[in-house]
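Table S5 (text form). Sequence records supplied for joint modeling of the four-component complex.
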Amino acid sequence: MKYLLQDLKVRVNDKIYIKDPESSDLGKRIIEHSILMIHEIGFDKFTFKKLGEKIGSNESSVYRYFENKHKLLLYLTSWYWGWLEYQLVFATNSIPDSKNKLRKGIEIITRSVKEDTSFSHINEVLLNQIVINEYSKSYLTKEVDEENKEGYFSIYKRLVIRLTDMIKDVDSDYAYPSSLSSTIIEGAMHQHFLADHFPSLTDCNKKITPTEYFIDLVFNSIKK
Amino acid sequence: MKYLLQDLKVRVNDKIYIKDPESSDLGKRIIEHSILMIHEIGFDKFTFKKLGEKIGSNESSVYRYFENKHKLLLYLTSWYWGWLEYQLVFATNSIPDSKNKLRKGIEIITRSVKEDTSFSHINEVLLNQIVINEYSKSYLTKEVDEENKEGYFSIYKRLVIRLTDMIKDVDSDYAYPSSLSSTIIEGAMHQHFLADHFPSLTDCNKKITPTEYFIDLVFNSIKK
DNA sequence: TATAGTTTGATAGTAATACTATTATCTTTG
DNA sequence: CAAAGATAATAGTATTACTATCAAACTATA
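The corresponding structure-token record, covering 448 residues in total, follows.
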């Protein structure tokens, strides 16, 4: 599996970048260190100037890869959702029973990423943290509709729809499969965030995982 | 009820502002027009300079009320959650049956605000839209923990806990009342957002409301 | 291997943002 | 009427978010 993942290249919509960061050494360093830096100081305080200094390069060179930091965030989060989609498909593909498949799918999507896998320059553990803390900022903008039309959120949407389909496979009569799917994905990130910063607003902690909570929620709602 | 609401002043943590905007005419104009402006151009493009121009005043005067625009957003959203908490308590207080009470509570929290009530300078319809589109930005920061300690999110937390208690009253054995409560409040905003911008990711639309979806979700999860 | 093309780095510059400071004016109230 | 307090006007600073230009380095291929 490690080998398989090593060769897999997550395909991000090529309108998100000016020059493909996977196509050069500098591009890869931009990705690698932007993840480290956004994780460290937060997206709001992150700038291309600071990144340039960190990678021993220059602001203007970073601008040759991404129009602005918003696009870079779209790139990183798209990559993450693509990577997660791959995990989802890979882990559930061979499961014949639709309930078990859904259970496994929820597990993949709601768990927190614990170990960095094979992509050398991309740290998935930190990227998972970034998605929890910053993803909303990528779509809570006045430009959402335009950017949605451009396909900037298509990987994320595909993931939500994959989970929706798994729900439908278990109970084709359930009235809210799309809402439930989007609630699981967004809600899991939110529960992880609350566990870290607002423990009084969640039951999730060291012992109880968001996965348990969402599996209970889902299987009580469907198939009666 | 209109009269009652007219006299009610939502109490926002006084560390959020430098000078209470309710204490002067200029302060009220700041609140009134910041709501209109943030709704119009979005929080990211909103600045105190633009606001000053709009209200025929001056950047520096706005700074005498709020340290920065982040604090102003905290003020507006705190006010909103306080207002919603009032609606919740007022509407559910007299309901004896815990199930009916919870049902009503979910309705209050998940519905979209349709008409501006009595607070002359605060437009609750627009403020509801602002909360949907911008609230996450107020806590997805590197300063959350500090600001949480300062009590900047206490009204929001109180609201989540009120709903948690309503859930517990219906089923004291349910394992995830806090997570369910926070999922409803955050999830309702998210479903409204999706209905507006990503209709393929939700079942909510003109005909199906987030309220229906969440009532179904909650009452299938508790009390079996 | 010469040279043309491409990529990167360095520097400079602009407009806007996010403030702070100072002073003048205007309003309220004692 | 005077003093205090609030507001407006102006100026100024550091940082952000870029754009433009040019030279150096590296690469590709004729």
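Note: Residues 19, 24, 26, 52, 57-58, 60-61, 64 of chain A lie near DNA strand C (CB under 10 Å from a C1').
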